[in-house]
Amino acid sequence: MPTMRLDKFFSSQEILSRKEVKAEVKKGTIKVNDTIPSSPEYKMDTDKDIVTYKGKEIPYKPYVYIMLNKPQGVVSATDDKINKTVLDLVPKELFRSDLFPAGRLDKDTVGFVLITNDGDFAHNILSPKNHIEKKYLVRLDKSITEEEIQQVEQGITLADGTVCRPASIQVIEAGETPLLEIVISEGKYHQIKRMFGVVNCGVTYLKRTQMGGLRLDEDLPEGICREIMHNELHKILLK
Ligand code: URA
Description:
This protein is α+β, with helices and mostly antiparallel strands. The chain has 6 helices and 16 strands. It folds into 3 domains: 3-57, RNA-binding S4 domain (Structural Genomics Hypothetical 15.5 Kd Protein In mrcA-pckA Intergenic Region, Chain A); 65-128 and 213-236, Alpha-Beta Plaits, CATH 3.30.70.580; 133-211, Alpha-L RNA-binding motif (Alpha-Beta Plaits, 2-Layer Sandwich). α1 (6-12) crosses α2 (18-27).
């Protein structure tokens, strides 16, 4: 049985400090299975015991996984002296001090950013070996020919000589400033902008709409986060 001291439980969930747990235990505001524990050192079972604080159940979550619909102007970092970061958009009830974005979107890119405190999970998503697919909507500043689309799809060579893996492209709106959907399975720096740059197209709008098999919720407004449930997590690792 996975045991943990009560004060560690509260501090790991960033709800109360160890000192505060001591005071609250004395006041009788913390219960374990309807019983008031005798000490903050009480050893609880994180799988089975039901802990309440002031009558509210406190679930044990070692890791949190968050879907953010990132707006423009926000940076994918944990800390920035000038700009707002993706962590500034995490609401208090989901916030942990060890959160970080699993992968980066450019400041002007919008859409799906996964924020977690699970390093192993993030590593699996980001590892180039795993080729997790990411889907984007891209608006170009000029028309693109069928041959140029094929060139990008076949695994284009970037200006610095880096060869990209094949991508797949669907034209959503043709025309002078076409809207495309592109799926790539790697995450090089400014990758999509650089891929289209090779065929002399600028990117005027970029939105990540899917990571692995998990789509960004269509009704999640920009700037808003929601928790990703455990039964959805495996979808991200789908290829
Ligand atoms: N490719 C880019 O060029 N920018 C992003 O933010 C993501 C992918």
